[in-house]
């Protein structure tokens, strides 16, 4: 355990208990090697009760609640006190499941759960969402679509996936828990890192996930735009007409990422309009970056389907069916 981590842990526990805790290194030579490589073990007395602290090395990705549950069972015969996992981070979804399973944990400076002794979650505790979750978050949806349309993500470390999707490792850790909870993917360990494993493939995965997916469109604006181009991609009816026999609307429709529109309005790249009559284009602001999935001209077919699937025009619905028939799974 690094000195900085020891100091932060002791300081946090002293704040909670009012007493400076005394951490004693444990002799764990009898433990399996993989546990000794992953954790440093200390004994400590907290709230009048002995505990064993299992400090996870910072080079390891945070595991799943199921993984920690199995490790408790492995450790129990070797230790004479309840095990508390000391973790660097713990996403809220994983935290909920750890509490639900009764697995003690401490995230120094942030939160702690010691059943019958202490609960410090530093925020209102939400009910576990589990498989009843109504829809995927934008990043979770992007992850599944990227896997289906761009390249397989099976077996890749979470930090590698985060780089591909231009998001943080913390966000991917939350996505990991979300997709596992909804049974869209499983989680496996690859060395020190966690990785995603999609049990279904191609069309079967799409059928499994699509009812939890939502339209990527957050809002639509009419604009005057003299020189449409990269990184804007055709979307809506404009993209559907490009891929099918449907006639295009009078105004072309383009998709932009979450923050691009406001930036371009401020710079004068385009100008907002009060109605369609004065506009030269329609802009959809998406909840994720469309260029991560689309080609050089138009958005990807699955996101396009999701953006139009509740369109009331029967012609649009007919062409959406044709669009899905032509998807190369």
Quick tags:
Arc Repressor Mutant, subunit A; seven-stranded mixed beta sheet; five-stranded mixed beta sheet; 3 domains; 329 residues; 19% strand; Trna Endonuclease, Chain: A, domain 1; alpha+beta
Task: Give the structure's gist in a few sentences.
By secondary structure, this protein is of the alpha+beta class. About 35% of the residues lie in helices and about 20% in strands. The protein is built from twelve helices and 14 strands.
How would you describe this protein?
The chain is of the alpha+beta class. The protein folds into three domains: 3-120, Trna Endonuclease, Chain: A, domain 1 (3-Layer(aba) Sandwich); 131-212, Arc Repressor Mutant, subunit A, CATH 1.10.10.10; 217-325, no CATH class. It is 36% helix and 19% strand. α6 packs across α7 (169-181) and α11 (301-308) runs antiparallel to α12 (314-325). The chain is elongated, with a radius of gyration of 25 Å.
Tally the helices. Answer: 12
Task: Give the distance, in angstroms, between the N- and C-terminal Cα atoms.
Answer: 47 Å
CATH class type of the largest domain: Alpha Beta
CATH topology of the largest domain: Trna Endonuclease, Chain: A, domain 1
How would you sum up the global shape? Answer: elongated
What are the low-pLDDT stretches, counting only 5+ consecutive residues below 50? 124-132
Radius of gyration: 25 Å
| SSE class | alpha+beta
Calculate the mean pLDDT score and round it: 88
Order of helices and strands: HEHEEHEHEEEHHHEEHEEHEHEEHH
Major sheet: order of its strands? 1-2-3-4-5-6-7
- The CATH architecture designation of the largest domain is 3-Layer(aba) Sandwich
Helix content: 25-40%
Q: What does the main sheet amount to? A: 7 strands, mixed
The total number of structural domains is: 3
- The fraction of residues in strands falls at 15-25%
What is the tally of beta strands?
14
